[in-house]
């Protein structure tokens, strides 16, 4: 009984860790993860799993202003919004 529980727990934790690593790599390293995904898809196509390989091919994105990652999220392309600086105001706690 405890062996089944330990095995289930190990699979659940392993799945959560694998999903977290996948999500972090997609968010923080988009170019490298697309490149790795394309390599896996080409390997699958070469080993007789062409339908799965075609489904895993990464979608081509239009590149941002920098032309490196295509994420367009760094804000380097658009002019930064002008904001007025406001001083910090510290208030004592009410007793």
Question: What is the fold's blueprint, element by element?
Answer:
Layout: H1 2-28, H2 30-46, H3 50-56
Helix pairs in contact: 1-2, 2-3
Write a concise keyword list for the protein shown above.
95 residues; 3 helices; 0% strand; single chain; flat; mainly alpha
Protein model, in words:
The protein is an all-alpha fold. It has a domain at 2-56. 54% of the residues lie in helices and 0% in strands. It has helices spanning 2-28, 30-46, 50-56. Helix 1 (2-28) packs across helix 2 (30-46) and helix 2 packs antiparallel against helix 3 (50-56). The longest helix is centred in the first third of the chain and has 27 residues, at 2-28. The protein is flat, with a radius of gyration of 23 Å.
The residue-averaged pLDDT reads: 82
**Gyration radius from CA atoms, angstroms:** 23 Å
- Considering DSSP H and I runs of 4 or more, what fraction of the residues is helical? 40-55%
Order of helices and strands: HHH
Explain briefly what this protein structure is.
The protein is an all-alpha fold and 95 residues long. The protein is 54% helix and 0% strand.
């Amino acid at each position: 009984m405890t062996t089944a529980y330990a095995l289930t727990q190990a699979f659940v934790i392993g799945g959560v860790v694998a999903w977290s690593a996948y999500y972090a790599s997609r968010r923080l390293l988009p170019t490298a993860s697309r490149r790795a995904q394309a390599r896996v898809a080409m390997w699958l196509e070469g080993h007789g799993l062409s339908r799965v390989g075609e489904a895993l091919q990464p979608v081509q994105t239009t590149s941002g202003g920098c032309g490196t990652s295509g994420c367009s999220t760094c804000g380097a392309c658009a002019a930064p919004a002008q904001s007025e600086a406001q001083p910090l105001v510290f208030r004592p706690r009410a007793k």
